[in-house]
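Extended Data, panel c. Modelled sequence:
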Amino acid sequence: MSIEFMKELIAQYGYLALFIGTFLEGETILLLAGFAAQSPAFNLDVRLVILVAFCGSLAGDQTAFFIGRHYGRRLVARSEKWRSRADRVHVMLKKYHEVLILSFRFFYGLRNLTPFVLGTADISILKFFLLNAVGAGIWAVSFALIGYGFGSLLENVLTKLIENVHHVELAVLGLAGLVALALWLRKALRRSR
């Protein structure tokens, strides 16, 4: 595939892919979308990236919550593995309650399971929605801006690298020479023993 085709694909379907990705999981695709928003080549607006990620994350977690609310107890009862995980989430919920609802999407391994299990708990739908919306907003802004900032940093580094490619070539050549000299000296010292 050509670069132009990839740019066109991202420009046309970037937001849809971001919505689906954040609905299902999220961190990686949001970081990439933030990174792409920094580059004019991909035609993504960082504000829309944040909005779409917020909507996708909120919709995915609300869906998992409602599935848990209606089918969760039966599904959890069928599997020892799920029961164990659900028990851990319930313990964390008792200990951290609102903090858990606000922050679960920031912790690897909790993102998909927690809203489902929270649906099995005695949490009002409105309370979960409000705390989930706040958490999704914080998450969308932070991860999109991290990706965007990383893109800016990388672009600056690459620009400086390209501007100074001659100096970099000399540095790499010098480093290779030092490594070769160190290896030669080591070998010479071994032979002399």
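The two ends are 58 Å apart (CA to CA). This feature is highlighted in the accompanying rendering.
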